């Protein structure tokens, strides 16, 4: 029986050869690897698209291009390391690389959306954005580019003027309710202190205590500045005269001496203030010690604080007469100042200030009231922003430890000098005036000279050491290079 014949009852076999099991196994593994490769490519492709889309928003076009090149290179390395190598992959590497560079070129060539120019100042109204076009009815094919444009935030670039105004609103401006509360607390503390002085020293003619300072003149820069309570001494007319400090042994043009006169007609002891004489002059140091002891140990501040709804503590460590006030809504520092006012309006206002050396018994001339009045007159003349500039400078210098040696006296002289020479003091020019004030301070520090406007013989930088002047000049010079660093 030949090979083509079949046995009876047995079905004939097919003439086609039976597929080999090993070949079938290779085909199945190839299909599985191809499917896994496609899934991996889809996942990597989605990850690359997400990274590039978000990187362009954060890093910009240049940064996104660098990130795209790095991401594509890593993707190719992963593909080569994990996918099986065959002839089709070798042929298609060049094609896929060309397609990837085309995608990258399209990414870098996409025009960046330019932000709308910000307004000149934060106080000006901002025009609303243009309304988006209405979406057509019915299903539409929303691509990734359209969703990217709708969800991308517009970058906000503020000018230095706007940053300066934002700093003023955040760190300089005090809420009106806090201002009113601070004034009320200072007035109540002044009334309590006046009642105590009259009861404790009935023989000393103290005048009515008057609250004052930058808070009452619209020059308060933040909540850290002090409120003044002036305690005036009532001197008898004809028994006292004022002598400039330059004519005394101290040779200090900042100070004045209060000399006792008419001793041949009104001998010593006829005035209640004669007990505070040192060498024929009314001593500010002796009066400061008297009032310091009274504030620190004789006045029942806990009882007064509970009556006013706050906590009052005298500052013992400070050389000045300070009261620390803590309220549930704010904290306040009150400076108690003994003052001597001349009989004539042109006479200087003198403060009992802790001075050193030969000037220890002299009285320091207080130029703040005259300077504040001068700034107010200049601003009212042209509706200017000189006082706002002074508040900004004080706020900036107080926030930076390297600039804290510049106090209100120094900054006031710079603003007064600019206020009399510059013409444009509108709000739009506030940023330029701020930078001009910094330049003027750097110039004065280079010369180590800042003459007082109302008393040119006084150099306000005379009390600073060379190391302090160098440190201030370096900090201000760095601030001029990057003004945003100061805000």
UniProtKB/TrEMBL annotation:
Any one GO CC term of this protein is: mitochondrial outer membrane
Q: Which UniProt keywords apply?
A: Membrane, Mitochondrion, Mitochondrion outer membrane, Transmembrane, Transmembrane helix
Q: Which InterPro entries match?
A: Mab-21_HhH/H2TH-like, MAB21L/cGLR, MID49/MID51, MID51-like_C
Q: Which domain of life is it from?
A: Eukaryota
Membrane topology summary: Single-pass membrane protein
- Entry-linked Pfam families: Mab-21_C, MID51-like_C
Q: Where is this region: Disordered?
A: 1-40, 108-148
The chain positions of domain Mitochondrial dynamics protein MID51-like C-terminal read: 178-371
Q: Where is the Mab-21-like HhH/H2TH-like domain?
A: 397-472
Subcellular localization: Mitochondrion outer membrane
UniProt entry tagged with the keyword Mitochondrion = yes
- What are the BP-aspect GO terms? mitochondrion organization; positive regulation of mitochondrial fission
Quote the biased-composition stretches of kind Pro residues, using this chain's numbering. 114-136
Q: Which SMART domains match?
A: Mab-21
Its family?
Belongs to the MID49/MID51 family.
Protein's name according to its UniProt entry: Mitochondrial dynamics protein MID49
The record lists the organism as: Nyctereutes procyonoides
